[in-house]
TrEMBL record, chains A, B, C:
InterPro entries in the cross-refs: Metal_Hydrolase (IPR032466), Uronate_isomerase (IPR003766)
Family under the similarity heading: Belongs to the metallo-dependent hydrolases superfamily. Uronate isomerase family.
GO biological process: D-galacturonate catabolic process; D-glucuronate catabolic process
Keywords: Isomerase
EC number: 5.3.1.12
Gene: uxaC
One Pfam entry name: UxaC
Gene Ontology MF, one: glucuronate isomerase activity
Name by which UniProt lists this protein: Uronate isomerase
Top-level taxon of the source organism: Bacteria
Pathway linked to the protein: Carbohydrate metabolism; pentose and glucuronate interconversion
Gene source species: Cellulomonas fimi
Catalytic activity: D-glucuronate = D-fructuronate
Amino acid sequence: MPSQPPLAPHPDRLLPADPAVRDIARRLYGSVRDLPIISPHGHVDPRVLLDDEPFRDPAQLFVTPDHYVTRLMHASGVPLEALGVGRGPLSEGEAREVWRLLCSSWHVYRGTPVRYWLESELAEIFDVTVRPSAETSDAIYDQIAERLAQDEYRPRALFERFKIEVLATTDDPCDDLAPHAALAADPTWSGRVLPTFRPDRYLEAARPDWVGSVGRLGEVSGVGTGTYSGWVEAMEARRRHFVEHGAVSADHAHVDAGTQPLEGGDAERLYAAGLAGTISTEEGAALRRHMLLEMARMSTEDGLTMTIHPGVRRDHHGPTASRFGADVGDDIPLQLEFTDALRPLLERFGTHPKLHVVLFTLDETVFSRELAPLAGFYPSVYIGAPWWFLDAPEAIRRWRSAITDTAGFSRTSGFIDDTRAFCSIPARHDMSRRLDSGFLAQLVAEHRLDEDEAVETVVDLVRGRPKEVFQL
Amino acid sequence: MPSQPPLAPHPDRLLPADPAVRDIARRLYGSVRDLPIISPHGHVDPRVLLDDEPFRDPAQLFVTPDHYVTRLMHASGVPLEALGVGRGPLSEGEAREVWRLLCSSWHVYRGTPVRYWLESELAEIFDVTVRPSAETSDAIYDQIAERLAQDEYRPRALFERFKIEVLATTDDPCDDLAPHAALAADPTWSGRVLPTFRPDRYLEAARPDWVGSVGRLGEVSGVGTGTYSGWVEAMEARRRHFVEHGAVSADHAHVDAGTQPLEGGDAERLYAAGLAGTISTEEGAALRRHMLLEMARMSTEDGLTMTIHPGVRRDHHGPTASRFGADVGDDIPLQLEFTDALRPLLERFGTHPKLHVVLFTLDETVFSRELAPLAGFYPSVYIGAPWWFLDAPEAIRRWRSAITDTAGFSRTSGFIDDTRAFCSIPARHDMSRRLDSGFLAQLVAEHRLDEDEAVETVVDLVRGRPKEVFQL
Amino acid sequence: MPSQPPLAPHPDRLLPADPAVRDIARRLYGSVRDLPIISPHGHVDPRVLLDDEPFRDPAQLFVTPDHYVTRLMHASGVPLEALGVGRGPLSEGEAREVWRLLCSSWHVYRGTPVRYWLESELAEIFDVTVRPSAETSDAIYDQIAERLAQDEYRPRALFERFKIEVLATTDDPCDDLAPHAALAADPTWSGRVLPTFRPDRYLEAARPDWVGSVGRLGEVSGVGTGTYSGWVEAMEARRRHFVEHGAVSADHAHVDAGTQPLEGGDAERLYAAGLAGTISTEEGAALRRHMLLEMARMSTEDGLTMTIHPGVRRDHHGPTASRFGADVGDDIPLQLEFTDALRPLLERFGTHPKLHVVLFTLDETVFSRELAPLAGFYPSVYIGAPWWFLDAPEAIRRWRSAITDTAGFSRTSGFIDDTRAFCSIPARHDMSRRLDSGFLAQLVAEHRLDEDEAVETVVDLVRGRPKEVFQL
C-alpha cells in the first residue's frame, strides 16, 4: 500500500483560529478536558453494559445502527440495505463491504460532525493513524477488529476508560427495567446507569397501536386503563417504578409542544373515543396536549425532569419507513413554536419549585425568539443543548451566540449527547467542551468576561449544569 | 475584606479580537466615542428631569424598576417580591437586601448585555472598582449612595454629563404633556425632551379597558368618540397636541403588524360593537388593523415618524401579571410576518414622501427575509435597531450581518435605546458604537470598504440616521 | 478635477482577515481563481450573444435593467423613472443622467454585493481606477463608453474573456428556441448556451392570463390543451423540444413549494374550471401543486434537473407593478416550508435515480431546519446556492455554516449566478470562489479538515457540483 494521508486529530482542533484567542481557549479547555462525563439523556442499550459482550465488528459498531452515519451515504446513492440496515447480523464478508462503503465515502462527510466524531473515535480509541479510504479500508477494519477482541475494548472497560460518571438510557414505561436492576445489583459493577421514562406512544390516542399500548400499560401497572383516570393512575404507577430504579427524567417527543387542558369531561370522552377507535387526528392531538400537561403535573410531584424534543416529521419517506422501520435517517424537522404552546403549562407550573423542563429544538428560529426569553424568566425552564442535526460545531456556536445575550450560561442544560453510538460519547462531549471553551475565550478576548469567571463557567457547564438540571 | 477581583471595563471591550481588525475598529470608534447622544425612543419619565430630585438608592435605581435586570434573577429562583417589585418605596435596609441579591447573582449575568451595561455604569458613572459579589455588596452600595447624594449625580447634571442632545419619552395620547411643557419653559434648562405618541390601547377595541380609554379620549380631546369618525377626529386632535409639544414620532406595539382596510361601513359597525362590549377578539383585531392603516394616513399628514414594535405575547405568566402588573419580565416574543401584513399600508403610502416607518422585531427571521428587502425598496421604510432581547452584542452583530447585504447602512434607524433605566443610556449607545465600529472594521479588513468610507458611515449611524429617520 | 479616491479592488478582498487563515484561503482560492465558469441558471438573453451587437452605454448596461441596482436607489428616494425604467431606449444625455444618479448614490451601496460586483466589473473589465461619485461620473461614463465601442467589448468577446464554459438561459415553453439553434449552428461560435424550461405561467390556472397561455401552448405544441391530459401531453412535447435544444433543467418558481396529488378526476375538473374562468384561488393552488408533481414525474423520464425557487410575494407594490411591470425590485420574500410541502413529491420520486431537484430559498430558516436534512437523506435533493437577496457575502457564509454540519459539501449545487447582468457573471462567480475558499480555510485553520481535502473540495464546488447536479 503506497503512503496514505495520515489520520491525526490535532490537539487544538475546534478551538478558535486566532492565536491569542486560542491561547485562552486552550487554558479553558485544559480545565475541563479530563473531567468525567455526565450523560443524562441518550439511547445506549443497558444490556450492552449488563452483558458486556465484545462489540461485533467495525461495521456493526460504527455504521449499520447509526442513522447519523448512514443518511449521508444514502443521499450519495448508497442504498440503506447495502449498509446492512434491516438485514440482521452481518457476516464478516458483509461487514467488510459495509465498512468499505463508509471508507470510500469518507469525502462526503467533510465538514460534518459525523466525520469529526469518527476521526476522534478511530484515532483515540482504536489508534487508527491513516485516513479512511477504499485503499485503507481493510487495514483499518483489521486493526479495529483486533482491538474489539481484547478485553479492554469490552463495553464495561470502555465505560470506565471514557470516565462516564452517569449514563441515562431511554425506556418504555412498560419496561421492567430488569437490566438496570441487575446492573445496580452487580457487585462487580459500580457505574451509574439510569433509566428514562419515555411515554410518547401512550399519549397518542390516534396512533393505530395506541389501544394495544394502553392495554399493555394496564397489564404491567396493574391498574385498569379502560378510563382516562385509570390511565393517569397507571402512568403514575409506572413513573414510581422508574423513580425507584433511579430515573431522573421523563422524555417527551411529539410533533408539537402544545399543552392545553381539556375541560368538562372532554378528556374522558376523547380517551373513550381513542379506545373505540373513533378518535380523529385533531382530537388525538387535543388529548395528547392535555396529557402532556398532566405529565408536567406529575413531574411537580415525583420530581422527574421533563425533557421536551418536539418538531420532527418522523418517517418522512414512507417507502423507507415501510421497509426499514423508524429511526433510519428520514426524519425531517418542522417549524416550531414554544411561546403559546407551553403557556398553559407554564401558567400552571412554570414557577413550581420542583419542576424542571428542558426544551430542545431543531428549529433554530426559537433560540433567541423563544427559548432564551422563556428560560430567562421561568425558573423551571432550561435551554437544552443543541440536538441531533444541531449537535454540530457551527450550530453549537450559533446556539451560544443566540441564547447567551438573554439567558446567560446558567439557564442551559449542559451537554446532552442523545446518542445510541456508545463509542461516540467521549468525542461528543469533548467537542462540546472545546466549543464552549472557544466561545468563552472569545468573550474573554473581547474583554466581556474575566478569565477567572470563564474558567468557573466552563467547569459549571460540564459539572454544575447537568447536576442541577437533572437533579443528579 | 480580603482582596477582591477588580471591576475595570477595558477600553477595547467589544472590539474585534484580531489585532489588525481591532486597530481599525479603534480608529472608527475614536471618531464617534464622544459624540452627543440622540435618543429618539425610550421610556424615561420626563418628571425625573423636571423635578431633578436625587435618585433614591442603588436598588431602586438599578434593580427594582428594570425588568431587564430582574428577570434573570427571577429565573434563578429569586421571587420578584424579594427584588422590591410591586412593594412601593423600599427602606434602606430593604434596598440593601435587594442590592445584595443583585451582587450575589452577578454570575448569572455572565455574557449578557445587562452585565455589560451595569459594569459600565458602575465603573464609569460611580467609580466602582471591585466586582459585585455578596462580599462587596455593602461597600458598593455605600459608594453609590454617597454619590447619589451629591448634586452632580442629580438627573439634570447626569443628562448633561451623558451629553444627551435629544431624549424622547413615551406618552399616552390623553397625557397633557405638562412636564414637557414645563421643561421647555424652564429658563434654567436647555435639554431637548420630546414626547412620543403611543396610542396602542385606543386601537384595541376588544380589550376590557377600551371603552373607558376612548371615553377619556373623548373628554380630553373635546371630540365625541361615540362613533368611529369621532375617534379619528379625536386622534388627529391629540396628535396635533403632541406635535405642538415637539413630538416627532408615534409608537405602535400590537401583537402583529397587520394593516387591512375595512370597507362598506365595517369600521363604524365594529367600533359600535366595541362600545357595546359585543366585539369578538377577531373583530377587534380587524378593527385594529384598519385603525393602524389610519394612523399611517395621519403620519403622511402630520409627519410623525411611525415606529412599529410588534410580535410579543404580553404578560405570558398570568399569575405574575395578576400580582405585579405589566412590564415585569414575562413578555415573550412571537413569530412575526411583515411582508403581507404591511402590504396594504405600503401599497397606499409606501412611496409617500412624508411617511417614515421604522420596523422593529424580536423575531430575527425577518431580518434578511423581510426587513432588508422592504427597506431596500420602499423609501418610507427603515430598519429599526435591534430591540429589547436583541439589543445585545451577539444579536446586533447578527443583525448587521443579516441586513447589510441587501439594505446597506443608510436604510437603518440609528441606535434606539428604548430604556427606562436612565443611567444605562450612555452605556447602551456606547455599546452600539463599539459594535458598529467592529462590524465596519471587519469590512475594511476584508477589503470590502475603504476606511474613509467606514469613518463616514459610523458617524452617519450616530448622527445622520436618527436625524433623518426621526426628522429631528 | 481634484484628486479622487481610487477604485482598486484588493487581491485579497473577501478572504478572512486573520493572517494565518488568509494564507490558507489564498492557496485555496489560487486553485480555482482561473477555472472556467459554469453558469447553469441565469437570465441572459441568448440574442445578446447571437447578434453580438455592442452594448449601448453604461447606464443601460449596468443600471436601468438591473433591479438589484435600482431598488436601493429607489429606497433612497430616486424614482424608478429617473433611472430609465420603463422608458425605452435612452438618449446619450439621459443615459449620462442615469449614470450620474448611480455614481452620486455610491455610498448607499456600502457593504452590499451590488457595490462589490460593480467595483469588480468597473475595475477589472473596464479599467476604471477612480471611485464613482458625482464628480467622477462623466469621466467614468466616457471611459466605459469608449471601451464598449471596441470589438473586444462585444458580447461574444466578453463571453470568451470571462471563460464561460456553459451558460443557461431561461425560456418560455412556447419559445421556439431559434436563437439557441442559430448559435449552435453558427460555425464561428463555439460557446455552449443552453435553454431552460420555465413553465410557471402554465401551472397557474387562476391567473388571468392562463387561458391564453395554455391556448398558445396548444398551438405551439400541436397538442390540444382543452383537457388536462392534453396539457400533460403538450408539456411533454415542449420539454422534448427543449431537450433537443440542449436544455438540462426546468425551473419552477411558485409562491410555495407545495406538491399534492389530485385524485378521482379532480385534476380534469379543476382544469376545466380554469378554462371556464370559474376556478378559485385555492383550487388554482391545488391544481398547481398537482401539476408540479407531474413535472417531477416528467423529470424522472426526460432527466431535466428540477430547480425550485419558491416563496416570494411578487409585485408587492401594486402601483409600481402597474406602471413598470414585473421584476423591477418590489418582490419581497415570504416564509417558506419544504418538509411537508415536498413530502408527496419525495415519497414518490425522492429516491428515483434520474431525479435531481435543487431547492432555493430566500428564507434562511430552512437552511439548517429543512434543506440540509432533506439533502442529507434524499439522493435526488441538492441545496441550491444562496439566491437573490442571499447571494451576498454575509448570507453565503451563514448558508455554508448552516448547511455543512448536516449535508457537507457534496449535497450543494455549486454556484448559481441567476443574473440578467451579463458583465456581472465573472464577479459573482469570483465572489463565490473567494467565500468558499475562506470558509474552507477556516475549517483547515481549526483543524477540522486537511488542506489537501480542502483543495479538492473547492475545486469540486466549482467544477464537480454543477456538472453532477445539472448533468452537464
